[in-house]
Amino acid sequence: MIQDQKITLAVSRILQRSERHVDIDKLVETFVDIGIFPQLINRNNQILYGRRGTGKTHVLKVLQTEISPDNKIVSLYLDCRTLGSTSQFSDTSLPLKKRCLALFRDILTPIYNTLLEHIVEYPNENAEKAIVALDELLDTITQPIKSYKQDSEVKRIEKEVGKSKTGGLNITSTSPDLSLNYSDKESSTQATEQTFRVNEEDKIIFPSLHKSLSETLELADVELYLLIDEWSSIPEDIQPYLAEFLKRGVLPVNRAVLKIASLEYRSKFKIPNKTPIFGFELGADISTAPDLDDYYVFDRNPEQITDLFSEILLKHLNVDLPVDYLKNKYGISSGKDLASKLFTQRDTLKELSRAAEGVVRDLINIFTNAFFDARKRGRDTIDLKAILEASRQWFEQDKAQDLDDEMHEVLRRIVEDVIGEKKARSFLLPRSLIKHDTIQKLFDARVLHHMQRGYADKDNPGVRYDIYSLDYGTYVDLIGTSKEPQIELFVEDNGADIVVPFDDKRSIRRIILGEEILEQ
Length: 520
What we know:
It holds the Pfam family ORC-CDC6-like. There is one protein chain. The chain is of the alpha/beta class. It has helices spanning about 5-10, 25-30, 55-65, 95-120, 125-140, 205-220, 240-250, 290-295, 300-320, 325-330, 335-340, 345-355, 360-375, 385-400, 405-420, 435-445, 470-475, 505-510, 515-520, and strands spanning about 45-50, 75-80, 145-170, 175-200, 225-230, 255-260, 285-290, 425-430, 450-455, 465-470, 490-495, 495-500. The chain folds into 4 domains: about 35-145 and about 205-295, Rossmann fold (3-Layer(aba) Sandwich), CATH 3.40.50; about 145-200, no CATH class; about 295-400, Helicase, Ruva Protein, domain 3 (Orthogonal Bundle), CATH 1.10.8; about 405-520, no CATH class. It is globular and about 145 Å long.
């Protein structure tokens, strides 16, 4: 199969990032749900966690297509990496207020454009009123708030002076009467002249925003689903302000639903220790959906994860192959068929699933590298050697390249302690160290993996740990070097060669990572 030119071309065309898909239908066709999707198709405001590469963008994109079966729902997908039309919100030299306003407007403007497009395309009897309400939303977004302040006051007194003479002859029956009157007239008027200074303040009024957005959705008879991706790409000091803005401007709107995808340890949804709460109160204002990382942990259910990953690979191949090509030519109609015919045996695919460490993007990249390594060696199926070489190559070319000197040094000490001395790959980390900056960086870089939360060790009652595992690539990278672990690498397990050993909790209990390894 590997030498098949059409399959080779299909493998080379597999996109490593969901947002690279131009054809939304292909994006939907490659989606395989493990149980997270039904928990997101609802009207709850939610945050979806998951590391880079676990499929958060894919889930949101597919969700966008599924929630709009008719014209009653308007969905807007926003990638935070594309926000900042003026680049102001990322410039720390600018005042915080100005940076926040630039970000708010970059979110509100596409909301306005999307709603306007929908009202024009699907008008109802209140379309004109809806557009008027939408124009008020535009004014709220773009128009500064004007106020008038008296600058000066000048009083003037104007005088008017005049003289008049009057005279006349009055004849009566008794005697003539001659009279002459003379008078001076003087009058004055007072005028006051005031000047005012017009102040323009650049800000967004939340009551006006709420009113105009609510009226627009009500008149247009639609619901707005706002899907925000890559939240953690926003500067951390601005994240609580964006959360507060969404809490005041979007969450109170009955017809608006908010879904956010982010990295858990790179998200700051509120300002800590501030009363009243500034930003999102998780669980009250917005709930958290299940973490994608928890769904793809291989050790919890190896058979299910192997089947899931085989289906993912099959779907990615099928979208770039002629219709039913694999089925008609090779009899492959399921992921299990693919596992038995594209790999030397199912356990080889299982080893690929372990090497991916629960990250779909890593699965695709290791698979692609293994496919072309096996093809270069003239094989027709992917063998274990190809998986090992691809895992090592992916670790060195992608993951290790993103580590700075401090991360390299800490990783080296963890590898020496856990793999070198303890002959294992997993370890316990006390809760006090979970948020250690270096641990979070190594976790984000996908060289440490979260296996289980809240593990209780009976030898240390009252103390809670999280179980972490070193990346499969860190282990394979040591094979054939002077630092190769001095343990048996090939272990017989039902006839299959297992290169990277499994850990059990009996051995993990004795491996507790201390702060001294992180701070040396």
